[in-house]
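Assemble and predict.
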Amino acid sequence: MANEPLVVIDNLHKSFGHVEVIKGVSLAVSKGEVACIIGPSGSGKSTLIRCVNALVPFERGSIKVLGIEVNDPKLDKLKLRKHVGMVFQQYNLFPHRTALQNVMMAPIQVLKRPKQAVEAEAYALLRKVRLEGKEHAYPGELSGGQQQRVAIARSLAMKPDLMLFDEVTAALDPETVGEVLLTIRQLAEEGMTCILVTHEMGFAREVANEIYFTDQGVIVEHGPPAQFFSAPRDPRTQAFLSQIL
Amino acid sequence: MTLGHAISAWFSHLNNTTGVNFTIFYDPYDRHRFLNGLWVTLTLSGVTIVGSVLVGIVGAWGQLSRLGWIRGIVAAYVELFRNTPPLVQMYFFYFGLSALLPEIRNSIGLERPLINGFTWACLSLICFAGSFNVEIFRSGIEAIPTATTEAAESLGFTRLQTYIHVVLPLALRICLPALTNNLVNLVKTTTLAYAIAVPELLYVSNQIWSDNDNVPEMMFVLFVIYIALVGILVFIMHTWERALRRPGLGT
Amino acid sequence: MSAKFPVILPLNATLRRPPGGLPTLRLAPWHGLILAAIILFSAAAAEAATGAATRASVLVVLARWSPLLWRGFGLNILISFLSMAIGTVLGAFLGLGLIAVTAPVRSVSWAITQFFRNAPWLVLLFFMIFLLPFHMHVGGLSISLPGWLKAVVGLALPVMANVAEIVRGGVRSIHPGQWEAAESLGFTRRQQLWLIILPQSVKRMLPPWMNLYAILTTSTTLASIVGVDEVVTLAGQVLAAEGSRPGLLAPIYAYVLLMFFAYTYPIAWATQRLERRYQVRI
């Protein structure tokens, strides 16, 4: 595994009004690594990964993705977002377009690539997330798990170097969680760099290279899953894990 | 020199030098007419707002009635008044209904109608806005879970007590935004009283600009006043909305 | 742990309220039947009271003046069409201004919208009737502006403000996640709006827009107050020409209402159908 850091977050601070939700977070994710962020709700996890692809502006600190400084006022957001894909808790598929069109839209409109090539790739991507035959279904006709897999394919169509997953299984029915996690695991095994915010501890333990536990806007503890789950050092981590596991 | 004198002197000067003619600020006769018109518009708005809200409360209560004929009457009233142009309603009241009423003689023996234009305007506007208020309150009531009213009744409240102490306060909070909308609409609709010669703001303004040929100036004043009236109403309603807000209820 | 308490649900009432803040017109076929019944009933009553021999019966009067009244109604429709067209085009731009990224554009659009939404329609009508010139000189061309054309402009202004509100409401009704998803895929703001948000919101804007048109159509009667020869004005003249017989008042106005009903009922019906359909789909 190559070890050059793909994402470097340094002393990140973020406030909404007077409420500081992220109070100095630093972490680095290497190429091909899978980082899982866990923690109680309201601890700033979702905000943290939204900062990485500049959906949310932040006041202090620095985030570098492939050497691009996100906190640069002159940031070329398009350039950043070509490298960073994101999947949301609520899927956020475009309901007026079919699954295939959802996947094809951004490469055609944003990257200005020719339609035929994009279409072939889109079919391949939907096959990869095991949605063969659902290409022409509208999001409303798909189950939550299927929609979420379309959303993953849609992000992959931009050929990103980094994928962000924001609690992507939290809104799913329990029986469809597995198929989405399978897809993510497949990606991880192919060497995609991923940052996941998740509540699926078992899954985090299996796929993650590094676990970060956040609480009240700071990283309390981090380490490889084996160490993190079996021998947590911080009392807050211990309390959290004893509640969850 | 008092402030009043200073203002009238300034507007008189403005007219002499620029031709911008705000007669209502320096001509006592026009000012008097105008203030009267403003007063009529204010009372018309006030009376119809209170009246239409009462109609809405009573009508929504009627729609909950166990008696079919009461529900039928309320439904027919709502359908009739919310689906016809308010102008035609006003003509109907003023020309149609008033023709059916007897005339009375005043102190010097002149015949005059039993009900004057102002009252007809009030009645017709109350009926118009009231029909919407019935609907608004009803949809507020429908949003209240039956479990809540059942709880009240199982505590020994009568139906009327439940309505007054539980249903209405909850429904009011839910439907305040829609109510605000409708009352704003009502204030704007008071201008229709012009059509039956009630001397409200638009009517007296028309008289003033006919006498002085100062349409743009009076139009300006009219816009400012109506926007201000609506602004004040919205402000009051929003303040009320905030004061009534309870955690977990509504938004 | 939270128990299953009965909860006051997200408000149906506020959700069903059209974004323009205008009431929804809701018509049923029996409204038309009632109007027809009023005409027939008062015709019968008038004949019983006066004897058909001396005066023309109500139905004969209605038939005699029908061509005139329908021509007047045609003017109402023409006014409503033109006001709606002008108001929609202007309102669409104004509505886009309301959701613009640049703050000054937003506040100016907001001020314009609030002004024309909150000014009484009748005052706006008067404003245009008195302040637009009778003749306009464009280049060397002299265009005369009859009253009804000024009324078109006067009514187009509140329509514009209401359309702007409808556009804004439609755009805001789309889940913010749609903007986020589009943004994270690299779409520009313009692409997000035109490719993702507007295609979804247009069908939500359609019902309130149609409702606005139905209300505008009934509001064209306001033009009678400022002296346009539309159907209510003509109805008054017909009454005068027939010697102001009290028995004619109800049937003639019922007849006028019937015209409006015949025209707006299909619109109101379609509006409700669309509303219900989109409520289920989304």
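Chain A has nine helices and ten strands.
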